[in-house]
Amino acid sequence: MNANENLPIVSIITIVSNNVRTIRNAIQSVAFQDYQNIEHIVIDNASSDGTLEAINEQREIISLIISEPDKGIYFALNKGIRLCNGQIIGFLNSDDILKSRVTISKIVSELCQSNFDAVYGDLQYFSITRPNSITRLWKAGKYSEKKIKHGWMPPHPTFYVFKSIYDKYGFFDETYKISSDYEMMLRLIYLHKIRIKYIPQVLVKMQRGGVSNQNFKSLFIKTKEDLRIMKKYNLSLMTLFLKSFGKFGQFIFRK
Q: Biggest alpha carbon distance in the chain?
């Protein structure tokens, strides 16, 4: 990207492990943005399926590439945060794409024209076999503390925050394998009450699936970790129930 010194740097971190099938699309969706001061950092977990070769094919549009064995998802994300030069940080999964060409411009505009610490928006899910057919819509809505107690959290892929917030309140807790993003949301929003703003539009398209719902073992680990997090923040078992079953309303079967 061509830097513009008058614009804040937005650091977008993409971590990947053996995902040659979609990593090009994620990289291209960042390069396609009209915002002119993006730092895209790609952290590869020593992939062996051609992922690194696919990344290197697009080296000229990536700010930094690191390829080495990692100690888990959140270890890699924390590595990316430490390497960032940006004032604003967001994350893009290796099989996700930014919704439109103006997504980052919209995020920066909302952050810089307000007194908020972070912004978030809506999330669409799509099938890899039918990328134009939306199967689920995560319409986040405005934040309230009552919603947190009902299992609510912002869609993490749409969450962009000033780096100073991470510096002040800490990075991802690497003792969690799956649910550290949920713990982070509670720590920042519920405990420290950072100021967040909802952007009522889809910011990211996510491929269906993910670490947390790949199989029964993943679901078991996630549930166990969620219970640990809820105990840490004095939330009830009802919060877990509502968090798990409150997602049914997100499923849609239309474009």
A: 49
C-beta of residue 233 within 8 angstroms of C-beta of residue 154: no
Using alpha carbons, select from 111, 123, 67 the residue that is nearest to residue 86.
111
**Structural domain count, the chain:** 1
Instruction: List, for residues 67-85, the tens digit of each pLDDT value.
Output: 999 999 999 999 999 999 9
Residues 41/23/206/118 CA torsion (nearest 10 deg): 0
Residue 3 forms part of a structural domain: no
| 88: amino acid identity, one letter | I
Give the start-end residues of each E strand in the chain.
Answer: 10-16, 38-44, 64-67, 88-91, 96-98, 118-127, 130-138, 160-162, 196-207
pLDDT at residue 2 in the model: 45
Residue 211 reports pLDDT greater than 80? no
Task: Using alpha carbons, list the distances in angstroms from residue 58 to 33, 43, 120, 194.
Answer: 15, 14, 28, 36
Q: Which CATH number does the domain housing residue 223 bear?
A: 3.90.550.10
In a domain, 74, yes or no: yes
Instruction: Tell me the CA end-to-end span of the chain in Å, nearest whole number.
Output: 32
DSSP 32: T
pLDDT in tens, 188-205: 999 999 999 999 999 999
